[in-house]
Amino acid sequence: MHALSHCAPLYWKLVLVLLVSLCSLISAQENGGCPACVCGKHSDPSLPNTLRVIGGNTSDIDRFPWMAALYYRERFTCGGSLINDRYILTAAHCVVRLDAAEFEVYLRRSNIVTLNVDAVHRRVLRIITNLYQQLRNNNDLALLLLKEPIRVEDGLVPICLPVDGSTFDGREAIVTGWGTTESGELSEHLQQLTVPILTNQQCRKSGYFRFQITAKMLCAGYLEGGRDSCQGDSGGPLQLTKSESGQQQIVGVVSWGKACAQRNYPGVYARVTRFVSWIRRQSRGACWCTG
């Protein structure tokens, strides 16, 4: 009896050592294949880190290497953003109740009509949504799991996620997409527009009913109208520069609005800071770049 009780502490010490070793091995296997990378900065050193402020003008795709064009059954449908090596962040209304196998994702594609030789193409394995409420446009955010990861050799950079719970009221952000222009047609080339971020209180005092603007939404745009995101921009990023590093972070996902560029009706976006924890949980196993 005495000998058995003397051996018990040694036995449990050995078990503890084995468990710690096993956890370390699993962690190394999960992270060991991830290359060193930085999010939110384009890879071309000849381009300035601070994006030019352009109102609704054609943009260089190299400035936004995380910008994704989504095609469903070979037809352009929405924008999206690469957030790590395996996942695209987009709007739920772009993908809900559709077949993941019918989606194609293109990165570094400058023209949605003509395919450039250096565009990167991936198929979609799975669509993940988060309690999307279609009637209210609430929780309008989705993840697309790519069949194959994006490689460093592709020269691609994901956009950074914001810090959970951050607010950006009063700051100017950039929205990018191939949405409808003044002509009423989709833009073949990527467009960018600088818009001010409003408080939800300001947005609820605009033309929308107060109940329409939830805490999961963010409004950005000009109350006088004339400039806005539009159909075809859905799912694309509202991005903001981190003042300390110059990296781009995604603070909104183009969601909905009343027509386009209407007076007193700013654009409404899914507020990404309310979904950061969910995004990271759903993206377990992906490689994240430093932000």
Automatic annotation (TrEMBL):
Residues 53-284 form the Peptidase S1 domain. Keywords: Disulfide bond, Hydrolase, Protease, Serine protease, Signal. Residues 1-28 form the signal peptide. GO terms for molecular function: serine-type endopeptidase activity. SMART domains: Tryp_SPc (SM00020). GO terms for biological process: proteolysis. Gene3D superfamilies: Trypsin-like serine proteases. CDD domains: Tryp_SPc. Belongs to the peptidase S1 family. CLIP subfamily. This is Peptidase S1 domain-containing protein. It comes from Anopheles funestus.
